[in-house]
Amino acid sequence: MPGRTVSPSNCSSFTPDHHDLLNDYSISINGFLPEKAPLNCLSQPYYAPWESILDNLSSMLKNKSARRAIDSIAVLSTDKLHTEEEWRRAYVVLSFLAHAYIWGGEKASEILPPAISIPFLQVSEHLHLPPVATYAALNLWNFTCDGSSFRDLDKLKALHTFSDTEDESWFYMVSVAMEAEGAYMIPTMLEALEATQRRDYSTITGALDQLIICIGNLGRLLDRMDEKCDPMVFYHQIRPYLAGSKNMAASGLPNGVLYEDERGVLCWKQLRGGSNGQSSLIQFLDIVLGVEHTSSGGNMRTHSHLTSGTGEVVPSFHEEVRSYMPAPHRAFLEHVSRMDSIKELANKPCTSDEQRQMQQSFQAATKALGDFRNRHMQIVTRYIIVPSKKQFQGSVVNLAAASSGSKEGSKEQLTGTGGTALIPFLKQTRDETYLAGHIMERA
C-alpha cells in the first residue's frame, strides 16, 4: 500500500455536493455526533425533579435510594420540550433514570413506574427511538468537550455516568472520539460510491486508502481504553447498568420490562441495551465495503433471509439495531445501501492496472476493518471474559454474571449488554468482514 498519510483536518469539510444531503440526515461536521456539544441540562425549572435525581444518581445507586427517589416524583408532561436538543436531553435523562430503576436494587425491576415510563415513551416516540439506554443516549448525546475538536479524547468528558467514575466516562468517550475521528470519511466514501458508476478507479482507490488510515486511527483510539478504564471497574460497576431487557431472563427479566403509557395501557417490552453495534459509523463502513452480516445475535446463528418457527422473517442483529439509531441516521444508511457497490465493481474481471490497484485497496480496506473487529474482540476479552472469572467484593447487582449461561464465566455463554451471545457473535461478525474482501479472489 502507498506510504502516504492523510490528515483528517484536510478532509473534514463537506463538499458542496454533499452538504445538503448530509444535513438532511442530521450528519454534522462531526459525523453522527451533533455539531455542538449536547445540552447539559433542561433549563426549564419544571424538569428539575428529573435533573436533580440524575445529578445525584451515583450516590443514590450506592445507598440503594434511587428507586425510592424516582417513585416520589410526579409524572411530568413533555409539552415543555420544544427544540430537538431538549428532546434529546430528555431522552438521555430518562434513559439513565430508567436503567437506574431497573438495575438499581437487589433484584432487577420488571416494572417501570409511570413517572418514568410515560414521558420516556413519549420522548422515544418523538425521536423514533426505543425507550431504552441506546448508544445515542450513552454516547452521542452525553458528552462535553473542553476544546474545539471532538476528536481529542483527552478533552472529552461524559455528562453523566451511573458509577461516578472516570472509568465510565472514559469508556463512553473513547466511542465519542472514534465517531468524530471517522467523520471525514463519510463524504469521502460517498464520493467513492458515486465514482463506481463512472468507473473512476483513481477516486475509489484514493478513498479506500484514506479509509485504511482512518480505520487504523480508530483502532488506536480503541487501544487507549486501558489508559483510564479498569476492566474490573467496568465489569462490576458499569456494565450491570448498560443492559436492556432482551435475552435477560437469567437476570430476572423473563418477560422484559413492563411500561405504562399515558392512557394507562400496559405493555411488556424486550429491548436491547446500549451497544457499540448501534454505531452508525461502523455500519456505514460495513455498507460501503459490502460487508454482509447474518447473525441474529442469539445463541444460534440465524440468517436474515430465513424465517422463524412462526414464518416471520428473522432480521440480522445489524439490521435490527438500526432501529436503535437516531431516525435520520438509519435513513442515511438505507440511502447509502441503495448506492452503487464498490464491492461489485471490485469483483469484476480486471482489465487495467488502475482497476487492479483499486481491487487491492478494497481488499486491504476490508482486512483493516476485520483487524479492527479483532482488536475489539481483544478488548472484550480483557474487559468481560477475564473479569468474569475473578471475584469482586461489591454490592452492585452484577448483570454480567447473572446473564451468563450454564457455565459461569464461560466465554461461550456470556451475554452482551445488547443481548447477543457475546463471543460467538463477535467472531462471526469479524469473519464476515474478512470474507467481504476474499470474495473477489474466487470471482
What does this protein structure show overall?
- This protein is mainly alpha-helical and 443 residues long.
- The protein has one domain (8-442): Up-down Bundle (Methane Monooxygenase Hydroxylase, Chain G, domain 1).
- The protein is 49% helix and 3% strand.
- The chain has 19 helices and four strands.
- It has helices spanning 16-24, 48-55, 57-62, 66-71, 84-103, 114-127, 135-140, 166-181, 185-197, 201-223, 225-228, 231-238, 280-289, 317-320, 327-337, 342-346, 353-385, 399-402, 422-438; strands at 143-145, 156-158, 257-260, 266-269.
- The strands form two sheets. The protein has a two-stranded antiparallel ribbon with strand order 1-2. Strands 3-4 form a two-stranded antiparallel sheet.
- A hairpin with a 5-residue loop joins strand 3 (257-260) and strand 4 (266-269).
- Helix 13 (280-289) runs parallel beside helix 15 (327-337).
- The longest helix has 33 residues, at 353-385.
- It starts with 15 loop residues before the first helix and ends in a 5-residue tail after the last helix.
- Mean pLDDT is 88; it is low at 1-12, 299-308, 404-412 and 439-443.
- Keywords: Heme, Iron, Metal-binding.
